[in-house]
Amino acid sequence: MRIVIDLQACQTEGSYNRGIGRYSLALAQAISRQRKDYEIRLVLNELYSELTKKIKKQFDGLIDSRMFSGYRYIPSLLTYGSKEDYYRQVAEILIRHHYAQLRPDILHISSVFEGCGGMAVVPGILSTLPGTVCSATLYDLIPLLMPEIYLPNEVLKKWYFQKLMVIRSCDLLLAISESTRKDAIHHLGIAPDKIVNISGAATPNFKVLDISPQTEREVRTRYGIVKRFVLYTGGIDHRKNVDGAISAFAKLPAEIRQQYQFVIVCGTHQQYRTDLLKQVVREGLQDEIVLTDYIPEEDLVLLYNLCAVFIFPSHYEGFGLPVLEAMSCGAAVIGANNSSIPEIIGRRDALFDSRRQSEITSLLYRALTDGDFLQDLKTWSRRRAKEFCWEYSAAKALEAFEKTLERTRVREPLVTARYLQRRKMAYFSPIVNSDDDKIAQYGRILLPFLARYYDITVYTDRKPDETDPIRHTFPVFSYQEFADHSMEYEIVIYNLEDILYPAIMHDMLKKYPGIVILHDSAMQSLAILKQDKEDWIEQEPVKSAIDYYDQQPVFTMAVGIFLYSPQSGNLLQQVYPHGLAAPFTCLTPMGTRAESLCGQEQAGSEPIEKIAAEFALAVERNLQQYLVQQQMVLIQELKGVLAHRNLPREELEILVNCAIDHIPKF
Length: 666
Prior knowledge:
Radius of gyration: 30 Å
CATH topology of the largest domain: Rossmann fold
Number of helices: 29
Shape: elongated
Structural class: alpha/beta
Strand content: 5-15%
Number of domains: 3
């Protein structure tokens, strides 16, 4: 299974240094650690060149650098939704084309909600990629639930609801909390089996520290903290209810406030900061409130460890990562009893109603004055935080990918295959005149059933015997005769008996790309070739084949690769760890002729019929993927957008280079 993860969310202006960017990076790293036999490819937006370099470094030792690829386009300088803005449409086409080149089984978008401002673009249509399961992470539906605050104008509304259409079109959604999952089911009508709660975790940097007195003095001095303190970190927009927490702190008895400061670590949105500062003055808390900007992560970890209480008063969260970070650092945590926050805190006596100021004050007072309760909260935090880990989230994501891929595959191939368009197929296979040869038997058994869906011509290395049924059922020609008829066929199949013989088939595949059937015997030859190359190197005729495979693997030119056992797939990945242009498909094994015929006698001809139908559907899926990735499709889509625009030649050249220079390498 080839999994392609778009990590643009780790780069964009609005997400790279916030929860979405950190979540996306940590999840991709955990998936990479647990990838097992899966092929993981990571995609980045190369317009963010510096962040591209930094993110690649984050995967050192996890993913080979050759498993990264990137797309590029001309960024738009116009306001989102402008009628003159064709740049975003072109960008979407180029990005989709890049995805198509990768031919993923799973395409996962780390965040759909990017691109209203800045350089980022997320394609508005993903479902046009044939044979691909489209997945996305869903963090929350806050703008939908609070439109008066987060969708204040028509441009934002249009952008957001277009993104919701992308979310609805996905085959799978990974929710970061059960609260978000339920919201998607209730408000978007997402089918319950299409959205999975994978939860989240804090990164390993957030942990309990043994802090020296000098380090504590230094961090306190940096931020003007002179007393014990209550801590909050996160956004400061209305939903975060920071103003409510300030009011609750102001209602504490004076003797308590004299012992504590309230440290608020937040962003730089000037209007929100101005409003908070005005409130601080109104409440008379100038000496008790410390309002910082964003601070380095290492300092944040220190503050989590040093605070008396961490408070999280938000009215709504998709997950609430700061809560888990604080708990991972052993802080006593209290928070609101809404959305996903109770899922993390996990105990009722540490929760309050965020809309009742008196409840916030009461619980904060108890935490600051009841030593036993405070210590119990700290002990609970350490134990509870261990229940959240990225390995669990990654395992849930991979399980969801597997199940969704299985669910989207055809359940009844015999029914579905009837509706396939009938095409002409060229079937290359050696003819071995022996009933004991399994490869020869494979074609003899399968082809009559496959002929229900295709007009088949067989091309062989030699003429079959007069008694061979293949000769009397299908037109049979030699390999050399194919060149004169190559334009007649829409599909070419190469049934490889052995990867070292005949060499002419390798040359044919190079000239005429097609689907390669690799039997287990062929894979055994590949294993020998790679492991014992030195022993074989001087032997003819295999020397030329060895050189060919080492320098330009024939598989990189295949439209598709069909295997008949998971073991063969594992071997192929070991031999070519950096991936192949065409992902492989593992089909139902047919067994020997005797076993197959026995199966027909016992249950009619359904076993072979079903195998042939599965084969035909797999052929069509690979063919569609191959056609979509061709440059002609890109040209046609670009023409549709640019037909009525007189673009300067220089701009057209840039567009062409964006497409050609960023084709993924295999």
